[in-house]
Amino acid sequence: MATSGPAIMGQVIVQALQKKGRKISKECQYNSEEWTILGKYKEEYRKKTTHEDRDILMRNHILVDIFNYWYQRKTVRNLQNEKF
User: Fold this and answer.
1) 57 and 45 in contact (C-beta within 8 Å)?
2) What is the pLDDT of residues 5-36, one digit of tens each?
3) Helix axes 32-39, 63-72, angle to 10 degrees
4) pTM over 0.90
5) Vertex 68, ends 65 and 73: CA angle to 5°?
6) What is the C-alpha to C-alpha distance for residues 63 and 57, in angstroms, rounded to an integer?
7) Burial 45-77 (b: 16+ CB within 10 A, else e)
8) For the chain, what are the domain ranges?
C-alpha cells in the first residue's frame, strides 16, 4: 500500500518543527566558577552592537579574566620562562 503525498509531507513538516536538542561537546563545558566570570559580562556584551565593540570587550576584559582565573588555578602554565 503506497503512502500518499500529503501524508509524507505532513511527517516531514512535523519532523522539521520538532525541537532538536543541542548536544554539548564534553570539551566545551565550563565549571560554575568559569560561568560566573563569563556571566559578569553577559549584559554588557549583549549591549554592544558592533563586532568591533564586542571584540574589544572580549579581548580586554573577558579573556583576561578567564585567563587569570585559569592561571591562578594552575590550569595554564607560565610560558615566559620556557624556550621553544
Assistant:
1) yes
2) 555 555 555 555 555 555 656 666 888 899 89
3) 150
4) no
5) 130
6) 9
7) eeeeeeeeebeebeeeebeeebeebeeeeeeee
8) 29-77
The residue with cell 579581548 is 59
Which backbone phi and psi does 28 adopt, to 5 degrees?
Answer: -105, 15
Amino acid at 4: S
Nine-digit cell at 5?
Answer: 503525498
Q: Which three cell numbers stand for residue 8?
A: 509524507
Report the alpha-carbon distance of residue 23 to residue 18 in Å, rounded: 15
HEC sequence for the chain: CCCCHHHHHHHHHHHHHCCCCCCCCHHHCCCHHHHHHHHCCHHHHHHCCCHHHHHHHHHHHHHHHHHHHHHHCCCCCCCCCCCC
